[in-house]
Each structure stands twice: as C-alpha cells, then as structure tokens.
Amino acid sequence: MKKEDTVKLISAEGFEFVIDKNAAMVSQTIRNMLTSPGGFAETEHREVTFPEISTTILEKICQYFYWSLQYASCWEGD
Hints:
Order of helices and strands: EEHHHEH
Radius of gyration: 13 Å
CATH topology: Potassium Channel Kv1.1, Chain A
Distance between the termini: 33 Å
Shape: globular
Helix content: 40-55%
Strand order of the largest sheet: 2-1-3
Largest sheet: 3 strands, mixed
Pathway: Protein modification; protein ubiquitination
CATH superfamily: Potassium Channel Kv1.1, Chain A
Structural class: alpha+beta
Mean pLDDT: 87
InterPro entries: ELC1 (IPR039948), SKP1/BTB/POZ_sf (IPR011333), Skp1_comp_POZ (IPR016073)
Subcellular location: Nucleus
Low-confidence stretches: none
Number of domains: 1
Family: Belongs to the SKP1 family.
Strand content: 15-25%
CATH architecture: 2-Layer Sandwich
Protein name: Elongin-C
C-alpha cells in the first residue's frame, strides 16, 4: 500500500494507527478534515490527532471503519 493511500490516526497517548484512506473516509468528520481546502496540517500530512480519544477506543473505531467499508454495501440493498 502506497503512503498516499493511507492515513495516520493518533490517539491521546500518542499511539499511531496507519489505516487505509478509504476506511478512514467512512467517517464524515475525518473526510472533512482530510479534504478541506486551506492547507490544513491534516490535509498535507494525512495525520489526524485525537487528544480526547484513548488508544483502546481509537483501535475499535479503526476496526469499525474496516467493518463498515466491507459490509456497508450488504445493508444498502435492504
């Protein structure tokens, strides 16, 4: 996976999760942070720091992103 295809999410404790950009884009908030015009650091470095979210919770969030990316299309047909 190329670096430009990844995003780094950083927990309150400084633990870094490098995940697929498509998985991160499941979150509208992260999508806005990474695609906003204006030269924000998150856009340039593809890093988002969450000072209020612990490592354990951010890990579960990342797992959800991948789960949603894989299974969301199954639910759209219902």
